[in-house]
Amino acid sequence: CAFFTGKLNVGVDAVQHGVEGLTYLLTESSKLMISETDFQDSIQVLGFSDDLNKLLVQLYLENRKEIRSILGELAPKLPSYHNLEWRLDVQLASRSLRQQIKPAVTMKLHLHQDDDQTVQVLQTDPSTLLHLIQQLEQALGEMKTNHCRRIVRNMK
């Protein structure tokens, strides 16, 4: 790094920020798989010379698939849903309280990750479960908006 800073007559921070900016530009462009024209439009506003812009476009086109595959390998592998078992328990009375109603929902969630199977046992009260359902339905509704559809389409 000292070699570059001496030859370029710039500080270490400037070189570091330049490398980080270039890395960010290439990874975000590769994630979205933007076209050559869109990439050119994106770097045009940076004020680089035409030769440097052509080199950046060439660098992007040559490496975008490899960058995308590396990003795919770095992504966390999350478990997937397999099965759900549930049970509703209601406590009607106890020694101290003769008349009470205390409901609880117990869920047994079966997950797959690669060839491994895991089980998670969760317990909650019905009001919290209803709130969770509402939040999930709201999130599913958000996925139907044009903004989210555009993002998902660009992620593919």
TrEMBL record:
Superkingdom is Eukaryota
Range of residues in the leader sequence: none
Mind telling me which InterPro entries this protein's record contains? COMM, Commd2
Q: Which PANTHER family match?
A: COMM DOMAIN CONTAINING PROTEIN 2, COMM DOMAIN-CONTAINING PROTEIN 2
What is the name attached to this protein's record?
COMD2 protein
Q: Taking every annotated instance into account, which residue ranges of this chain make up the domain COMM?
A: 80-147
Chain's gene name: Commd2
